[in-house]
Design a protein that fits this description.
Elements (H helix, E strand, L loop, with lengths): L2 E4 L9 H14 L8 H5 L4 H10 L7 H18 L7 H9 L4 E5 L3 H11 L5 E4 L11 H10 L6 E5 L2 H9 L3 E4 L9 H4 L3 E2 L6 H4 L2
Parallel strand pairs: 1-2, 1-4, 2-3, 4-5, 5-6
Helix pairs in contact: 1-4, 3-4
Protein name: Haloacid dehalogenase superfamily, subfamily IA, variant 3 with third motif having DD or ED/haloacid dehalogenase superfamily, subfamily IA, variant 1 with third motif having Dx(3-4)D or Dx(3-4)E
Organism: Lentzea xinjiangensis
Length: 209
């Protein structure tokens, strides 16, 4: 294997709950009605996709662009107060980056990926948001773009993921997938059965040895 590509939310930042809380509060403030399936449905969606979902499925009384911009602004405020980096994540990425080219392939908007990299100072030369792609996860687009920018064939990449849609995206890209299951939103068992499962992101460097 020639490279390692990381998801961000749920793998390096414990942010899935933050996204959920921010979106729910934003939806309530703008006429939306939250549904039980909304959280999982939006996991992995690109920014335009979940903005449209907030309008069409949740009923937010804004345009999709206004909804996504409003949520992202709230997320920036939340991260300015506290960036919830997962324990062991920074050390794991540094250890892996000493041995492999690394990248981030995330559904998070580029501005929030930049916040993470600025705060942590991690040596990640390639960071791709699904905002740049035609479709978010479970489409493989963001992983394929990250591999392309690394100059490495997808089949020669490890991918590190936590969610059902993220795991599906990495598998569809033809990568060797390692899962660090999100404890708040556990991935589907049938998808986990197709990948190698780690108990913690801190276990990653040894798993790649």
């Amino acid at each position: 294997m020639d490279a390692v590509i990381f998801d961000l939310d749920g793998v390096l930042i414990d942010s899935e709950q933050v996204w959920d809380e921010v979106r729910q509060a934003f939806a309530a403030a703008h006429g939306g009605v939250w549904t039980p399936e909304a959280t999982r449905a939006m996991q992995g969606m690109s920014t335009p996709e979940w903005g449209e979902y907030l309008v069409s499925a949740v009923g937010v009384r804004l345009t999709a662009a206004e909804a996504s911009a409003g949520v992202i602004a709230e997320m920036e405020r939340a991260y300015a107060s506290h960036l919830p980096v997962i324990p062991g994540a920074v050390d794991a990425v540094r250890a892996v980056a000493a041995r492999y080219p690394v990248a981030i392939a995330s559904s998070a908007p580029a501005v929030l990926i930049k916040v993470f990299l600025d705060v942590t100072g991690l040596p990640v030369p390639v960071a791709v948001s699904s905002e740049e792609c035609a479709a978010g996860k479970p489409s493989p687009d963001v992983y394929l773009l990250a591999a392309s920018r690394l100059g490495v064939p997808p089949a020669s990449c490890y991918a590190v993921e936590d969610s059902t849609n993220g795991l599906k995206a990495a598998l569809a890209a033809g990568m060797t997938v390692l899962a660090v299951p999100n404890p708040h939103f556990p991935p589907a068992a049938d998808v986990l059965a197709q990948v190698r499962v780690l108990s913690s992101i801190a276990d990653l460097p040894d798993a790649l040895a």
